[in-house]
Specification:
Number of helices: 11
Largest sheet: 7 strands, parallel
CATH superfamily: P-loop containing nucleotide triphosphate hydrolases
CATH topology: Rossmann fold
Distance between the termini: 11 Å
Mean pLDDT: 93
Structural class: alpha/beta
Order of helices and strands: EHEHEHEHHEHEHHEHHH
Shape: globular
Helix content: 40-55%
CATH architecture: 3-Layer(aba) Sandwich
Amino acid sequence: MSDQNGRIYWVGGSKGGVGKSMMTVATLDYVLERGDKALLVECDTSNPDVWKAYKDQVPAELIDLDEADGWIHLVNTCDSHRDTVVIVNTAARNNVAVRQYGQTLDSSLEELGTKLVALWVINRQRDSLELLREFTDAVPKADVHVVRNGYFGDERKFELYNGSKIRESIEGRGGKSVTFPDLADRVADDIYTKRLSLSAAAKTLPIGNRAELARWRGEVRKVLSEVVA
């Protein structure tokens, strides 16, 4: 068990298709495997696949962060789960609301006695970096780590980010830049379509799929040990 109970992990990216949901699943799996209590906050209320996969395994809340009420609900939920690792799976559209209402969370962190740790998932496109910059401006107290999604290629192919000023800024503030390993499509597709938690998938998928999942989970643990301390 870690000593990080009470932290809030914000899995962001603010656009569809960068891999936020798989990152959330991996983070949940990592936290549970090390013996921590976890709460899932699912903000993709129109397509809550992570919530459907984990709602019977961990406490889970559906919270719409497009409105001010959702941010109030989020802060109050974190307050009532202070001994729990809160993992927030954000929706693709949430950056607009972060600019409007992010201060609600940012200004509550000291009273909550917690840290907000953003795991910001990027692809190789420029708008990933622009959205990241918007987030850091809107929520200045967040500790931000950048996650290059290996589905889009190895670390060297993220040239825009690797040579960017935003990387210098993130790492200058103590953040890390890590690369999330790719999972074979047929295994990832099974997990998504069957809405399986990783622990359930590790028991029920065909033997070859389970072997690939075990390999990937091992690689994921190495990466997450750097940013989910």
